[in-house]
């Protein structure tokens, strides 16, 4: 989802009477403030894979990092389509958000520097920027950084219950 702010479409079939769509600004605030997300990818044999990880909202995209040897990196290499979710485990309150899109590798060192500052400020994780990768404090474990530009976003509110799709 690039460009202007998306339009919120309340999915009435899955919403209680009187429910209203949360404003896009509330969804962005949740994406920017959440610390944990769940990344869903697909293995080469078609089986799903889900992994919890931190992600950072920057420039209208969610960013995450992973080692090249990890399952999620191998899955993305074969099929870059993925879903990232965040929200709350509460049943009767809060908003859960799913972001569908394609993972794209980020190698631009200027963008990586901005992202490293976000990881430090938000989670106190320290990454150095190497040549197109994050490096841990020992400099021995490079991590690839990916961005997911939302192709589809759904928000699930819980009081009252509703489902909203954001479209451009």
From TrEMBL:
One of its GO terms (molecular function) is coenzyme F420 binding. Residues 27-153 form the Pyridoxamine 5'-phosphate oxidase N-terminal domain. It holds the Pfam family PNPOx_N. It comes from the Bacteria. One of its GO terms (cellular component) is cytosol. Keywords: Oxidoreductase. This is General stress protein 26. It comes from Micromonospora narathiwatensis.
């Amino acid at each position: 989802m690039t460009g202007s702010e998306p339009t919120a479409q309340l999915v009435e079939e899955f919403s209680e009477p009187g429910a209203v769509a949360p404003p896009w600004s509330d969804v962005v605030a949740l994406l920017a403030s959440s610390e944990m997300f769940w990344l869903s990818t697909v293995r080469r044999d078609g089986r799903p894979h889900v992994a919890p990880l931190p992600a950072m909202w920057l420039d209208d995209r969610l960013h995450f990092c992973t080692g090249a040897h990890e399952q999620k990196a191998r899955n993305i290499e074969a099929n870059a389509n993925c879903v990232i979710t965040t929200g709350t485990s509460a049943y009767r309150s809060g908003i859960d958000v799913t972001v569908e899109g394609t993972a794209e590798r980020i190698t631009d060192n200027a963008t990586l520097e901005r992202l490293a500052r976000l990881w430090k400020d938000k989670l106190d994780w320290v990454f150095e920027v190497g040549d197109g990768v994050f490096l841990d404090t020992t400099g021995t474990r490079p991590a690839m950084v990916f961005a997911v530009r939302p192709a589809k976003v759904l928000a699930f509110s819980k009081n009252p219950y509703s489902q909203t799709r954001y479209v451009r």
